[in-house]
């Protein structure tokens, strides 16, 4: 049954990716694209790739802090597991790399896979909050070219709305943590008029979620988690600025933040493994706000996507080979574990 649902999601994702690629390439002059690539300054690639791996390292470091309430883990296990997980995310559908990442670290550290996976849920929440802050900062500080005043005002309005939503989510999670029963009862009452079954299911899922969530203990743990979150996204945004410069595009850093926000939303859309098409379309759309369009925009999008997705694949496969594991073996072990 699960396999059937997965196959359907994969087919939908492939269809969406194909549609995005059709929209992107239907009016492209490949000669102009080749000229854009020929004019690229490839000296920017090396520092951009290094920064991408620095971002993965900071992810492993934050993961260490998130796992502190369960066990003191080693970075020598966390970093390779992170690379393996992101490699799997790029090769497998439905973000199955998260399960791979949890399994590999659980095997290395002797921790139950479900406990490791719960830490990854918190990991994603940290990403969500950090991206929301980046989004707010971008909307309030970015300056678009002349003639786009309407879009500029829309971004400021979006900044206010996002900030309010951000505060609302923080308040809800704080209540869910401190007054769990009261908050779950409130959720049930609010959703009951729409569907009693859905309200009960939502309350059950939220209850299971908050009971499995373990935040880093103490002020130092929380501060370290927050600091590494900003370092992760700083190291992920900087390469975008470098690659823009590689194509002769000099924009303020807020432009790279703006592009990153679009890319984050793009990976939420169902797509083929590697987010081919959706990622490129989001990047081209963001670039169009700065009057960068056509072959130049698509060339930049292709390089940004390749930088974010290709280098981690051989690195992850090497770590997997070194641990004498395979994606097939991990999948079989996960399935057998789910049945027991």
Automatic annotation (TrEMBL):
Keywords: Cell membrane, Membrane, Transmembrane, Transmembrane helix. Its main location: membrane. It is a multi-pass membrane protein. It comes from the Bacteria. It is found in: Cell membrane. It holds the Pfam family LPG_synthase_TM. The chain crosses the membrane at residues 42-58, 116-142, 154-176, 222-244, 251-271, 297-321. InterPro entries: L-PG_synthase/AglD. One of its GO terms (cellular component) is plasma membrane. This is Membrane protein, putative. It comes from Citrifermentans bemidjiense (strain ATCC BAA-1014 / DSM 16622 / JCM 12645 / Bem).
């Amino acid at each position: 049954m699960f396999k059937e649902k997965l196959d359907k999601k994969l087919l939908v994702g492939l269809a969406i990716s194909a549609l995005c690629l059709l929209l992107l390439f239907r009016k492209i002059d490949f000669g102009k694209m080749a000229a854009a690539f020929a004019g690229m300054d490839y000296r920017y690639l090396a520092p951009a790739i290094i920064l991408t791996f620095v971002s993965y390292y900071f992810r492993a470091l934050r993961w260490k802090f998130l796992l502190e309430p369960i066990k003191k883990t080693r970075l020598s296990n966390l970093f390779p597991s992170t690379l393996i997980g992101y490699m799997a995310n790029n090769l497998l559908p439905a973000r199955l790399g998260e399960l791979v990442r949890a399994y590999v670290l659980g095997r290395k550290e002797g921790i139950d896979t479900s406990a490791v996976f719960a830490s990854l849920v918190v990991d994603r929440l940290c990403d969500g909050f950090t991206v929301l802050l980046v989004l707010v900062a971008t909307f309030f500080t970015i300056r678009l070219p002349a003639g786009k005043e309407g879009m500029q005002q829309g971004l400021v309005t979006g900044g206010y709305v996002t900030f309010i939503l951000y505060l609302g989510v923080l308040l809800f999670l704080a209540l869910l943590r401190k007054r769990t029963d009261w908050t779950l009862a409130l959720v049930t009452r609010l959703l009951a008029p729409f569907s009693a079954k859905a309200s009960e299911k939502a309350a059950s899922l939220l209850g299971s979620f908050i009971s499995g969530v373990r935040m880093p203990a103490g002020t130092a743990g929380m501060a370290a988690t927050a600091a590494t979150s900003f370092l992760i996204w700083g190291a992920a945004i900087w390469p975008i600025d470098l690659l823009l410069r590689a194509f002769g595009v000099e924009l303020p850093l807020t432009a790279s933040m703006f592009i990153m926000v679009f890319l984050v939303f793009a990976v939420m859309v169902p797509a083929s493994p590697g987010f081919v098409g959706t990622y490129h379309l989001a990047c081209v759309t963001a670039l169009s706000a700065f009057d960068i369009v056509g072959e130049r925009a698509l060339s930049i999008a292709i390089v940004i996507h390749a930088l974010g997705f290709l280098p981690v694949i051989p690195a992850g496969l090497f770590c997997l080979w070194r641990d004498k594991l395979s994606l097939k073996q991990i999948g079989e072990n996960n399935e057998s574990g789910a049945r027991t």
